[in-house]
Design brief:
Elements lengths: L1 E2 L23 E2 L4 E2 L2 E2 L9 E2 L10 E9 L7 H9 L13 E5 L6 E2 L2 E2 L5 E2 L1 E2 L3 E3 L3 E4 L3 E10 L11 H8 L2 E4 L3 E4 L6 E7 L2 H4 L21 E6 L22 E7 L9 E7 L14 E7 L19 H4 L8 H6 L1 E5 L16 E2 L6 E2 L1 H17 L2 E11 L1 H12 L6 E5 L8 H9 L6 E6 L7 H14 L4 E6 L12 H4 L12 H10 L12 H5 L5
Helix pairs in contact: 7-8, 8-9
Amino acid sequence: GRSKCHHFGSAGGCWFGDRCYFAHDRRDCTTEAKTDVVVCDADCTADMEVAAPATDVGPKAGLRVVVSASDVPDDQRLRDLARRRGRARHLNTGPARLRLVGDVPTLGFDDGYWDTQYGSDLIWDGKQWASLIVDVPVGVDLEFCILQVEQCESHPGVLQGTRRCYIHDSRHFAWSVPIRIRAPQKEGRVLEVHLPSFTALWASESSWAHWESGPTPPPPPMSLHEGVREDFLAFGRGPQLGLPLPPPGQQRCYTFDGPRSSDGVSTLGFCLYLPPGHGSDEAPSGGWPMVLFLHSMHGRLDGDMNLFYESDTPVRLLQGDPDCPAALRERFVVLSPQCPADQDRQDGGGIWLRHGWYEESTFAPDMEAALAALITSVAGSCDVDTRRISVVGSSMGAYAALELSARWPGFFAAAAPIAAHYDLDPVEALIERLVQTQQLPMWFFHAKNDEMCPYGPIEALVVELRRRSRAEVRMTSFVDTWSNQGHCADRVPFFSKPVSPGQPALADAVFEWLAAQRLGAAPRPPRLAAEALGDGGQ
């Protein structure tokens, strides 16, 4: 292997040439085995071959890792990396992007390798990095490293398909010293690993190559705390948030377990934003309006296609981006859950409200129940006006926004589907549920040249909704000239100023419109599929 872009030096060469995010260097990557791990140059993009880990089936415990930023060095490399990531515009992404990679599938173990493209990202909260709860087998000895992911910001709407993979293949990773722990012995318990020194993680100049001819370095300073899973969940002990709320004007991420059913428990990571006036005299008398944002396919809070670094969504904008619309930043509680990974898919992804691959998928009542419980819990803990909850979704998330709006009539005050599709169930049934028992204002956004989610079916849906609905149905269409597949619609409703030539920027109008929507009566509680049908909702 080489410490370089995977495509540099190949027959075809690197497609990006001088535009590749990193220099095409030629430093060697050693692969000499040390104990059960292969050592590798600190900046290598190659995966690391390791011994087979404990099986990923059977009872599960949890792992949570926290890294303190108290001794982060103010060195030029970190400053350069922050600048390349766009920190001049995005002030709250932290001084480094960190990722856990180890010897279980939930930490990126795949086919005998620690795969640097997977694993679980730690999330910056202003003072430290912390992971969501990661499932691990009960009672096994685990080894993992923390990587510094060195990559500029990219935008999945602009770089669709395989071009996105090429961008990721050109990244470099700085490996920490290895960390070895033993997972909790009982199911339902979580081990929290607290690492108080950032610099100690990258001892010996951050290079695994330093250790190839000597003993494995000592572990970094750490403290361990084990407890029951409920103590680490957002709502593990009841309807009120059991962990600290985000400071007003900031986001925090949490783990949430949905209700237990015959299909098991659907676990949701979620990001929560509170407006600057939350908890003060500025609060509206009836509570704050809330936006439920549902992300697109493969979007993650804690992995690749990262919503903080690689998206044009509210999650990224609310980090301090000057293009964030004022109404979104100042007037809304924003709830952004993460779609659970589907083990049947084996690609690290999932589909909102579905199990399996798209064409063969079935409705997921456990996920629907988890979303309903999460929305209700957040609304009850964060002074939300339940008559002013709107749902906004992008691509796959727009499918979910349509599906939830139809299944939960009278619950949402408005819906804004962006680059939507609806091709898994008969569309006539969807239309009937959207118009017969509710008056739901809707605002669609779609590029006429969208190659992934074609414009025609959504245009026809809007025509029929306008004919039959008693509520306002808006449609904003445009030609996407700034992406290679016409599927970068997020910029139109989310950005307050154009960031690409010819791009409409309607965010100020969109979020003012959402803020003005209110149900005429108390919301009707969601009637969940498992309760309504008694057959798992399929």
